[in-house]
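Sample 1 of the test manifest.
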Amino acid sequence: MAASSLDSHGLSQPSYSLRRINRPFTTEYRIYFEQQENTTKNDTDSPIVKNSVPISPFHDIPLYHDMEKGILNMVVEIPRWSQAKFEISRSKSLNPIIQDQLDGELRFVKNCFPYKGYIWNYGALPQTWEDPSHFMHDPAGSTGRTRGDNDPLDAIEISPKSIIPTGSVKTVKPLGILCLVDSGETDWKVVVIDVHNPLAEKLDDIDDVELHFPGLLDATRDWFRWYKVPDGNEPNEFAFGGRFLDANYANKIIKECSDAWERLVSGRAEKGDVSIENTTLKDTPGKLDPDEIDLPPGEDLSPAPIEPEVFDGWVFLDKDSSQLGYSRGSLLGQPASLCINLDVEK
Amino acid sequence: MAASSLDSHGLSQPSYSLRRINRPFTTEYRIYFEQQENTTKNDTDSPIVKNSVPISPFHDIPLYHDMEKGILNMVVEIPRWSQAKFEISRSKSLNPIIQDQLDGELRFVKNCFPYKGYIWNYGALPQTWEDPSHFMHDPAGSTGRTRGDNDPLDAIEISPKSIIPTGSVKTVKPLGILCLVDSGETDWKVVVIDVHNPLAEKLDDIDDVELHFPGLLDATRDWFRWYKVPDGNEPNEFAFGGRFLDANYANKIIKECSDAWERLVSGRAEKGDVSIENTTLKDTPGKLDPDEIDLPPGEDLSPAPIEPEVFDGWVFLDKDSSQLGYSRGSLLGQPASLCINLDVEK
């Protein structure tokens, strides 16, 4: 159990810190997670001695922050309005946050009009796994034969006032879920809100989101449908007719992915390229001795320079066109300006 | 005529510079414009001697950059995705750019979901004036009895790749126009594009905008309808049923506002609180001797600190509600979070 203290909501807050290595916006950038172990000495005049233990944000941060209240932990990867596709690495030891690559290039999501970057704080639920060998629970049958995408469950945190930095661990409650189907893989997106947001107490289910944040759900579906098109992909599709499912359904999916993660980390599931190394889960095959982990010292380097047009540009998409059969090759690798109107490319 | 040089488009480019006084994000912040007068000495080894003359961006920058080609100058006040409401002061001598105030507070436009700040580069066309004593040209009669808003014509510059800094003077071509009616005042918004944008040659009229930037016009109308609602205003309305009128119509309005400005600056129109002081327009009542203008020295100060929630927050609006009769008082002065759902306030 992490060292913790009670916050104003009576929730115990584990204390995590980050160790950044190399420059942001490079392929070598890593954000490792560490957990503080506070050792208070009896002599109250002495400072608290903190001991940092490296952990995996995928495996060592508990999914349930307060299981009785249904409150979860979320690891934020991408702050609202930003574009760099930071994500928990599933294959590197201790699963640091890295910047995703596409065809060897660092991945920055385009600003697909009318959206500026990601429109929520985006991240993952720790200790969950979308098992690629597992066909998802689907009473309606509408996910067809899609399977898990081999990553932790994705979550979108919708607090409208907070931009949450990469690597933050937030206590959130689930409100609903959307079933994105991306290249034949099930890619659930859990809608959550930080319980410390003053509005959180008014939000308990997906209908409350539409009531208090009108337009957000439609925009979210629209965002996910189109965001990979500038990279040359077809628009994404959705199961359940694109409907957002309710909090109850979200909790069922979370439970399934929690169970899948338990099979993964205990060695009962085929792990493939997933690193299951961790430092806190006793009797698991991936358990490491923290004293034998030798991470480089943390740095706080300025980001590498990036072409201004990566950040400054809009991409316009012809969303109403019935002729979206443009070829991947015709768009791939071309500057964003060429995607402004897809008709121009055909 | 300004000192100028030919750019790659064969357009002569006057050389303007800015003199910033006081800290940005304070009520004392001023951006004055100066025009460079280059004096090249015969001795080519000598540096070019530059002499800066203070000018008014309202009166001293020519409207037409190339009248034959229909190319205009635009003074950019607000860069895309930013929120501070910078504008040419109509009443201060030499019309510096200042930050607008609302009820004594510096004005920052809210991020009305799904938009982040202004969605284009926003500014004004110099040497134009929406005469408040003048009822606008309107063959359809649909602007009713609205009159000019006493400011230069507003323009939105739609280059999707460029964020243009406050105070920039750009050469643009008009593509169309929208007739916003704001509190009973006609407030035209001219749609323009920087002629140096590679796409500009494909854009000649308003239909080209919809073709190449699908969704932009609808979003623009939506943006203008709602952007003042978080400050306690009713949604804005539009003449002509909210239709964007074509480039031909835009040019007619521009010509009318150019004529109105000529009446203003020549003393033939009642100027009210508008400062018509200038330094380059001979035989006008507001002509100043540049040598007698004593501007403080320019500074380059960091912006004053602003509450993070000004920049970090979304405001959600209940756009579909048929019951928008909320009172100004119920919203005015309340933090943005309370505007998230207007139903909550009623």
